[in-house]
Each structure stands twice: as structure tokens, then as C-alpha cells.
Amino acid sequence: MADSRAQKRVLIICGDYMEDYEVMVPFQALLAYGVAVDAVCPDKKAGDVCRTAIHQLATHQTYSETRGHNFTLNATFDEIDASVYDGLVLPGGRAPEYLAMNESVLDVVRKFSASRKPIASICHGQLILAAADCVKGRKCTAFPSVKPVLIAAGAHWIENADMGACVVDENLVTAATYVGHPEFIQLFVKALGGIISGSDKRILFLCGDFMEDYEVMVPFQSLQALGCHVDAVCPKKQKGDTCPTAVHDFEGDQTYSEKPGHDFTLNATFEGIDASSYDGLVIPGGRAPEYLALDENVIAIVKSFMKAEKPVASICHGQQILSAAGVLKGMKCTAYPAVKLNVVLGGATWLEPDPINRCFTDGNLVTGAAWPGHPEFVSQFMSLLDVRVSF
């Protein structure tokens, strides 16, 4: 839950083929915390989309790239007034390569730098900082290939211990990649004057192959950024194993499209977990719930959380698991519209997700229809956990 009595405003400068996670995770996490966020792109207007890129380090000498989600801008670049914002976020990916050549972008960045307002830049976003002459004498990190540019621009390069590295120098927060989002976002929230309380919570995520890409990573890293201990597990897999994810988008077809997503790394082992040691449960959507709903151990875990009336948050197709567990009888909930049959047959009262980002809380249960609803979804789950961000 967020205390927005003194609401902060943040600007995110976007571009085509920015890294998928590196725009959506901070965008939706900050919204969930009660921060007003405007995402803009030069030569585009509110309602236009930016295509994103999925970057992953595998066995190659550099990262691979595939198509990500379509990110919808919610503000118009030409109409922004930098002076009304309290902070700036620069996502990475390939967009910074050309945004760093845009004088209008550089002018905005220079204004934030001159006013000493918090700037958070990740991965290749630091190319923009270098082009704006905002790193001279400053300590910072970035994706390793950006190192020569930063050094040439006069920065004090901090070598990455790993891809989760973050560095703070006064108002400047820099990170190497989206692996470091939890610390990156937390540092930015604190730079904005945010105070996090109630974060001593343990959260369990029930994961599976081809869960929706955003629907696992956004809440996972949003909760970690609040200081919560979050364990992501999958039946028949161990800590360090990966689950391939699916990118589900709304592109004008009669149902969602699907593209390959990031590989999500599990940070705990399913076998032997003690459900009673956790304060809350999250069930991502996507295609994984179709088969996880058939796993007796998964069903037993869900039943235990619901019986104990601990906070449970389930989104999109995740409600297929709730229905199979028989825990929806007498509850009110929503889901992705195609899952309505499961919800109704499970004995719940169906709540129409209109618009698609609507989320609902009934007792200990938070349900959402799809990833556009993450800000409400995470915020309502925070309320049940009594985790707060105040400014």
C-alpha cells in the first residue's frame, strides 16, 4: 500500500526496442507504490506504442534479442514540463543508441541533472547520460559494453561484480542490467524520499514453464524492491533452474498473441518447501496454470494458504489453479475473460474486469485479469501484507 499524500511524479524516457523488463518493471512498480509515472517517447503521443526487446545472456559472446511486449505510452513527449517531475528513469536496451543523438532528450536529461533531482539509468541508458555530459567525475556502472563510452565521457567507472550491480553517486543511480532491478528501484524510491515499512515478509511464487513473462517478473521484482524475501519455485525444478516464459500481448486479434519471453531463473527449490513459513502467495498467469492445476502438491499449497487466510494474489490464468483447488466457493473474483468458466464453475461470483486493468480484493484474495493491472494488483497485495511506501 502506498501513502500518496505527497505524491511524487516520475518521468520515463522511452524508445523503440528499449529492453522489455527495463521499462515495464520500474514503470509498474512505481505506480504500485503510489508514484505518478509518465512514459514518453520523442515523436510519439500518449496512446502510441513502443516495441520492446528481450535481451538475454546465454552462451553467446553478447546478449540475444527477440521481440518483447508492445509498451503503451501514457503521455506525450512534446507536452512535458521537466520541472514538474521529481525524478527521471532511463531504461536500457537499444533505444538509448538513438535517443542519445536526440537534442530534445538530452535537454530534458540536462535539466534533471542541473536540478540535482534523482536520475535512475540502467544498462545502455547510460549512453544518454554520457551524451548529455552528466557523468563527468561521477561514479557509475552500466552494461559492460558501455564502459568505454562512460570513461571517454569522464565518468569514474565502477566494475561490475555481477549483472545485478548498482551504484549510487549523490542523485545518480545506475545499474548494469534488469537483474539488479530490486536494488535499483529501491535506491530510486529512497532517492525520491520514500520510506518503506512492513517489508519483513516472506512471499512464495508458484511458477511454471510458459507463465506470462510480465506476470512473474513485475510482481517478483516489485516485492523484492520493497525488501520482501521472495522465493520462486516450480514443481520438478530446483534453485538455479529456469522456466521459459511467454509474452502475451493484445494486438487486435480475437485473443492474445504469444511470443517467447525471458528465461526466468528460480531462486528456491519446490521440493521440501514449508508453505507455513510464508506470509503470502503469488500465482502468475500465462499457460503454466493449465498444467500446474493438475499437480497435487501445488493444489495442497494453495489450499493451505487459503485455509490459513494468508494473502493470496492470482492473476490472469492463475485462477485456473484456484478453481482446481476448490478454494473459490463463495468468493468474489476476476480473471482473464477466457477463464470465467473456471471461476464460475469453481463456485465464485464473477467480477467483470472492465477495464482489463481492474483488480479486486475479497478477504485474503487479490485477483487480476491481466498484466496491465499490475499496479492495482501489487498495491492491493501490499495492503493485505501491510507493506507500505510513504513519501
From TrEMBL:
Domain of life: Eukaryota
PROSITE patterns found in the cross-reference section: PEPTIDASE_C56_PFPI
GO terms under biological process: guanine deglycation
MF GO annotations: glyoxalase III activity
Start and end residues of each DJ-1/PfpI domain: 8-190, 201-382
InterPro entries: C56_PfpI-like, Class_I_gatase-like, DJ-1/PfpI
Xref: Gene3D superfamilies: 3.40.50.880
Pfam families: DJ-1_PfpI
Family the entry assigns: Belongs to the peptidase C56 family.
Stored PANTHER family: DJ-1 PROTEIN, DJ-1_THIJ_PFPI FAMILY PROTEIN
The name this protein goes by in its record: Protein DJ-1 homolog D
Gene that encodes the chain: LOC110798222
